[in-house]
Fold this sequence. Notes:
Number of strands: 14
Oligomer: single chain
Structural class: alpha/beta
Shape: globular
CATH class: Alpha Beta
Amino acid sequence: MSELIPPAGRGRLPRSFRAVIKPIGSLCNLECTYCYYLHKKDLLPGTTGRRITDDLLEEFIRQYLAEQDVEEVVFTWHGGEPALLGLDFYRKVVELQEKYGAGKRIKNDLQTNGVLLDDAWCEFLKEHGFLVGLSIDGPKELHDCFRRVGTGMGISTVGEARESSTALTPGPSPEAGEGSFDRALTRAGETGEGRLDCALTSAGEGGEGSFDRVYAAARRLREHGVPFNAVTVIHAVNVRHPEEVYRFLTEELGCRRVQWLPCAELKNFRRVAPGRWDTAEMPVVGSRAARPGSPESVVTDWSVDPDDWGEFLCRTFDLWMKEGLGKVLVNWFESLVGQWMGLPAQICSLGEVCGRSLIAMESDGSLYSCDRFVFPEYKLGNLCDSDRRLGDVVYSIEQREFGCKKRNTLPDYCRSCPYGFACNGECPKSRFLKTPDGQPGLNYFCSGIKRFLEYADPYLRQIAAAVQRKRGIEPLGTSVEVALRE
Length: 486
């Protein structure tokens, strides 16, 4: 078995990894309908409402810095909502990083919903060079569909979600045909079904939208000069409005870094860990069960239809080509340009293997293979265990096997695909379909991704060639971002 992260030594790459730190577990001040992490309070009862202790925080920072053989180390603070810990917590973080940094360059990323970011927060983030990932799903009508404050979701049916975005009318969508959300509504009307598959919707109409607070946070971040990325979940509603989403983020919000995160969850995602599905129950790609909105569907109603995801990528790629090339960095497009140049994927879901960088640590010190695999089946250990260091867990056989499984379990359908080098089967969390010939392990988004790559291929070739002529590809670490900006 090939080593994912070779140990340091002569002829070896330096040891380097990243961890997604959950210092407050799943605790959050929003109850987003599509959230993949809120239910961890029930799955991992020992972490409920528990913040990381001061001793554990110090030990983590000490080990995390000591185990890195590189000059620059990045900390990623995640949740739940990590800002709930308050500014004093992050002042302590910075003090400990200075104490154990040993001359390393230290950077911090804060993934936040923005609700708590006032001027004091922004001043601190600017002073200490934090990069902020701000969760925002587009303009108000689209953002507030599923990102709600308080105990109620505020959206109880797919129809209400659709109606909440009536101010936006999707333009013509070549080759896409009727959208999945319209199909879902039609099926819901025919069957009497259609309620969002989320237990929290039973809380009723109490939750208000969070857009106004998030937009205010974005304004403050800009005013204080704090760099931030727009982290945009593409769900069953905003996927139908690619131009509105893209233009809002890049023009009105003024964001120069955008991350698309397509949403797809099995209806049993709170109970069944990824990769532990019953393969006999996996639907075949293209079947009604493999699309959202029908009673027999295996995915939640807020999940993106695969073909709509492909169309969203095509339309936003067009806009990026015409208006954003060299100015706006979209995670999918930036990574693919590099991959067309022969460089490694810049986002983990498109990489050949997993586990190379992003392990997850919960507030009690429990360590998991990935942020999307925080289930008991994927627990690697605990930082509080005296007999294992953080590096022992990261470079363990279990984690290497987890990472290589992404490559080793690809179905033949993927291995024969001309775009396999770019997709690599995408995230294993979403490999719950069967191929046309019945082989399990096909990614839910396959048809949409393939449609997009076929469409974008000639343009990606041209961009990659232009970048190579301008910059060359040596050394392999050359940033596509820098090349595109010039």
